[in-house]
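Objective 1b: paired records.
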Amino acid sequence: MAADDWETRKGFLRFTTEEEVALTALRPIMAQHVEELVGAFYRHLLSFPETRKFLTDELISTRLLEAQKRYLLSLVTGPYDRAYEEGRRRIGQVHARLGLTPEWYFGAYALYLSLLEPLVFERFHTQPAKYVAIRIALTKIMFLDIQLALEAYIEKSSEGQDYAVNQLAGFTRELEQGLVQNRHVLSETQQQLRLAERLAELGTLAASMAHEIGTPMNVILGRAEQLMQRTDDETMKKGLTIITAQVERMTRLINQLLTFARRGPPNFRPVDLREVVKNCLEAVEERLSRHCVRVVSEHDEDLPHIHGDSDLMMQVLLNLVLNAVQAMPEKGTLRVAAVREGAQHIRLTVADTGHGIPPDVLPKIFEPFVTTKERGKGTGLGLTVVLGIVQEHGGSITVDSTPGQGTTFTLLLPRVAPSFQQ
């Protein structure tokens, strides 16, 4: 982060030069009570199994407590410049490496504020204006530190995510190369066995990383939403909105990884595709309206049910519809149709009038990590998940696209035998 960005960050919190000066009035109080504050902090850590384990190592506990003393003293010393930001970020990175989760940060900051409040009141209660200024400044510097701690934690979690994505991509490349090199040697049966083995490895890695990243992300999201409800400061809300948006983006990737790694069998039963389409369009109604997308929904009135899992078919449709909406950022037409296809199948079509898929990407569109979206806006797993679900249903999916005119996905899904029709 550049120095100008650091000043912008302080500007978002309205952390003024006057407030920086006001904090220095707490130096004598902090110096006098720092041992007492850190002692209370230490006892607080010992009360939780998750943090107690870090204190069993005397070297770690000693360093941690000494670091807390330096932290508290620097909190009211300043200067609150680029060096201060770098120091705070390094502290957050150390905590992230130790495995300390965001709930630990929030607990520590809440504890220090609750302990400092009566000390500040005792010293400045006869000077109401100064007392209020100091309390506001103290709260803002705490929030500033919380931002940096959370960012360090998210960055550390992103490293795990990037590792998982890179490993998955590597497995995929290895799989493709192996199949190409051996296509003249392996029978069709052997290729499928090799593919199944590699996909099993992919699934194990994806499930493991999704679990490790997903739990702390939920903690961050929950805490950020709580803070948003408790503050009336619009600039603070903007910052928290950015945090929640990024966490939600990571959560979407995690959910796709989990789906990619899903081991349980689908819950097959007769499914009314008309109902699935209706529920899907209702779920994205606000987004369709925001992008000025006109919807055309068509289906046979006596459409037979398909043999499938309604939740998974909902996921398929949501992926395809959201992709279509993103391909029409300003306006366009979305057409969803479900009709009979011969005696045994239902044809489901999702078509848009968006920017289309480049010809060089089209043949690879269902491969993992292939995406036409801007960096940070797509994982390249959505259509891979769609393909897997459709194939589990005994169906097929094809895509036809013309750049500048639109894209059409066509699914053929087996219908329920008449004797089992609801």
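Objective 1b, second protein:
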Amino acid sequence: MKELKKFAVIGSPIEHSLSPKIHSLFAESLGIKISYEALKVEEIEFTTRVRQLFDEGYDGLNVTLPLKESAFKFADSLSDDSILCESVNTLWMEDGSICADTTDGRGLMKDLLNKELDVKDAKILLLGAGGSAKAIIPALLRNNPESITIANRTHERAEYLADRFSSPDRVMKAIPLSAEIDFEPDLIINTSSAGVLDQGMKLPSNIFSNQPSIYDLSYATSNTPFMNLALSSGSKNCYDGIGMLIEQAALSFQIWTNEVPDTDFDLELLS
């Protein structure tokens, strides 16, 4: 049995990743020896590079943008959540097969619980209809919100996700991103890349009218642009996605090591 466990996060760009620091903190607290690198991998080289890394003895890989759907198509064995989300953020080898899971949705739910943001019976407005939205919708639905409405710049993509995850018991709605909303959301979750790229987002003028709770999947050293917009409009409970990042990382760490790390540590340790 190897004493040192080797892990990495792969994606492009990858220089900004906090995953090496997070997993190193997990390992240190549990007395486990690991190495954890951030490796730049382009989509065109995904298959070759991942096979090479496992051949070199890596015990597990985290997968970030833009490789999550490539990982889904590549894996030999998929978790139920991965199949629902059609994306993967965690890879490992088991009996010669490459296994895959996505911990994004479960990580989000853990952080929402930590922040006492209750999904049950809530009216949720989801901004964005890309891979990040698709990765969290199944976990949100499992926690029985009253409704989920998806708003996106490209209305067809929002409609696709709404149709994909709707059921006879719960019909999801899709609206254009700039359209006025005809309900008062309890929770707004921003999954849009505009929060990362600091691009302007044309939002409904009444989006913050009842001061909903705000959760931005993006994270930054200070407030994200979307959080600042919400705060300036009167919303008081505003959070970025650093807690989700830590919680989904902990779930990956548990898959690889069978150890449950403590996620309640000083965020200044990540700076």
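The radius of gyration is 19 Å. The chain is about 35% helix and 20% strand.
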